[in-house]
Write a structure and sequence with these properties.
275 residues; alpha/beta; 4-stranded antiparallel sheet; 11 helices; 36% helix
Length: 275
């Protein structure tokens, strides 16, 4: 049995303008300790797929989710409130795109990590000790002092580390990282990528990376899923997909990657008419 199984997942949004089928019946799974990337452009359905795994999407009638999402064999959408709270954080945790807007500016970093520990753990450990240890694990110096910091007192890179620390505080089996390097400069991006790779291996944890950047998946993931307009168009081992893409959309995405040593070469936009 896989850690996570997604079967015939469909996500539909309803508004005054009509209905939008964001995800159109996809299937995939993630095994224990496996690292998987979902790749695609903005609007391909990858982020709403990730959010659906933890029931973070708006409730009906605004958003309708159908199909099955099985976490260790249990359907996430059939869990009661108590079971869902235990699963969030304890079994599956989420790193959001923008840490600056994900943290509450009125509370310290430490109090927010402690609150997550209280909500999603069994209460056997001191939340403040867990928070300090989590900050240390992601490479934040003077962790106990940093517990007293407010979000605005941290740099973007340090905030992202704090967000990862909060996600890891309850020792999840699966970490979902939604565009974790967005809005970070190249140097900090590499630090975050290296951190995720190190933490995943040390904790023997599964990882689902949501990204539009083919450049980072080679370093983090074993398998890749390519999404286009709400559907999975290609999946396979990262090396195989990167070196020998089969679907025209995957080929077009890879062709858009800037190449070292090709100064002056124009980026090739995706010709949707040919897909």
């Amino acid at each position: 049995m896989s850690l996570l199984e997604v079967k015939n997942l469909k996500i539909r949004f309803d508004s005054r303008r009509g209905q939008t089928d964001a995800v159109k019946g996809i299937d995939f799974e993630i095994g224990d300790g496996e690292s998987v990337a979902i790749v695609g452009e903005s609007g391909s359905g990858k982020s709403v797929t990730a959010m659906s795994l933890m029931r973070l999407l708006p409730p009906p009638p605004l958003c309708t989710v159908s199909g099955k999402i099985l976490l260790e064999g249990k359907n996430v959408y059939e869990m009661d409130g108590k079971t869902l709270r235990a699963a969030r954080g304890g079994k599956i945790a989420y790193i959001f795109q923008e840490p600056a807007t994900s943290f509450n500016p009125l509370f310290t970093i430490g109090s927010q990590i402690e609150e997550a520990v209280k909500l999603h753990s069994d209460g056997s450990e001191d939340p403040r000790e867990v928070a300090a240890k989590s900050l240390e694990d992601v490479g934040i110096r003077d962790a106990r002092l940093r517990l007293k910091s407010y979000p605005h007192e941290m740099s973007g890179g340090m905030l992202q580390r704090a967000m990862i620390a909060m996600a890891l505080a309850c020792r999840p089996k699966l970490l979902v990282a939604d565009e974790p390097t967005t809005a970070l400069d190249v140097t900090i991006q590499k630090q975050v990528i290296d951190l995720l790779a190190d933490v995943r291996l040390r904790r023997k944890m599964s990882l689902l990376l949501i990204t539009h950047n083919f450049g980072i998946i080679r370093h983090l993931c074993e398998r890749v899923i390519v999404m286009f307009r709400g559907e999975i168009v290609e999946t396979g081992a990262c090396a195989d997909v990167l070196e020998n893409p089969q679907h025209p959309y995957t080929k077009a995405l890879i062709n858009c990657i800037p190449r070292i040593g090709h100064k002056g070469e124009k980026l090739r936009p995706i010709d949707y008419a040919k897909l």
